[in-house]
Amino acid sequence: MHNIYIATVFAGALVFLIMSVLLILRYKSGERSRIFLSIIVFFSVINYFLRFIDLLNGNEPEFVVSPKLLLVAIFMLFSYILYPVEVVSPGWLNLRRIIKLYSLWIFLIIVYFISLWSGVEYTTYSSLIEMLPDAGRFDVWFRLLLALIMFSPILLVLYIHRTKLYHNSDRIWIKKYTFSFLLNVFAYVLVLMFNDDILHTLYYYVSVGCSLYIVYLELFDRLIIKSTVTATSGNLTPEPPSAKVPDVDIPVLNEKSGTQQRNAVLIERLDTYMKKNNAWRDPDLSLNMLAAELFTNRTTLAQALRDNGYENYTNYIKKLRIDDFLNQIDSGQSTNFQEAFFSVGFRSRSTALRNFQQLTGMTPSEYFQNKNDLTEESLLQKN
């Protein structure tokens, strides 16, 4: 069992290293969340590798309920808070705010060093259960307090502010991340409570599995939408919707103007607004939102779309997204079909492929292959 434990620790360190490198390689300009997550994962690489070296050299690793390892665990848990904060509010985190988030941990570190300076001796225990009978002593209740504080980041994850003005994530992603985070914390608490090699080994599998799932969500599931945010010394101040005013002057129509003329003007305003803001890239965009931006109602806007050749709002947005997708691939702005689909506003790969085939009659691979063949044929004919 001991050899399995050593192999598990080494495999965990290797998997965490691969995840960290992969996140760095998939980093794109403006997506700091991947950098945050990569650094956090690399902390686990260091922890696992140091424990593996101790085990390989025959040294007995420090018990997880030692004050040092409890403080390291709290540091890791608070680090995992930085990632969802950056996801939900891109650009909000700066050095001052990061220090604030770590302020409790910094305070605990200071208390720990003061206790050592005061001559407090921390008795060796193998589990929380074992130290409960001595809970009246400072070295014991301080560690019990550290174990309890480990649950505080859970509250922050559960109640992270989510405003509709940010479209860098959705509630489903928050729920998935929270579930993985909670599972990891509760598994670690079990390890703290019971000193058992089998339980320790199983925890490493749970920890690696949860981290793998979080990295998978970041790379392949979460939709990354660029949003304009102004970070001030206080709270985030997104650009208010009221500040978005179409550049095009709204013609004044007399009462005798027909419905078609009014709808033509409305569509012109709609096209101007969409091109100026790339609004179709927002996966949460709806007919109601567009109507509010154009100072009209959804019924009028829907009728205007039909009068101008669009079957409905869905087809209108679908065409804009597919056109944007084709432009990104043709221009070389993106070489990955999936990332390009997400960047133009699709929520899932399957929906994007279905819509693409409905409009072009082909898959993306077939479309671009056919386009290349036609280009080569045209060049041959000219020569």
Order of helices and strands: HHHHHHHHHHEEHHHHHHH
CATH architecture annotation name of the largest domain: Up-down Bundle
Counted up, domains total 2
Terminus-to-terminus distance = 72 Å
Rounded mean pLDDT is 78
Subunit arrangement of the protein: single chain
Give the low-confidence spans: 161-168, 225-257
Percent in strands:
under 5%
| Shape, per Cα inertia axes | elongated
The value of Rg in angstroms is: 28 Å
- How much helix, percentage-wise, in residues? 55-70%
Secondary-structure content class: mainly alpha
If you consult CATH, what is the topology of the largest domain?
Answer: Rhopdopsin 7-helix transmembrane proteins
Strand order of the biggest β-sheet? 1-2
* Largest β sheet strand count, sense and barrel closure: 2 strands, antiparallel
Q: Could you name the CATH class of the largest domain? A: Mainly Alpha
How many beta strands in the DSSP annotation? 2
Count of runs of 4 or more consecutive helical residues: 17
How does this structure look, described?
The chain is mostly helical. The chain folds into 2 domains: about 1-230, Rhopdopsin 7-helix transmembrane proteins, CATH 1.20.1070; about 245-380, Arc Repressor Mutant, subunit A (Orthogonal Bundle), CATH 1.10.10. About 65% of the residues lie in helices and about 0% in strands. The protein contains 17 helices and 2 strands. Strands 1-2 form a two-stranded antiparallel sheet. Strand 1 and strand 2 form a beta hairpin. Helix 1 (about 1-25) packs parallel to helix 10 (about 195-220), helix 3 (about 65-90) packs parallel to helix 7 and helix 14 (about 315-330) packs across helix 15 (about 335-345). The relative contact order is 0.07.
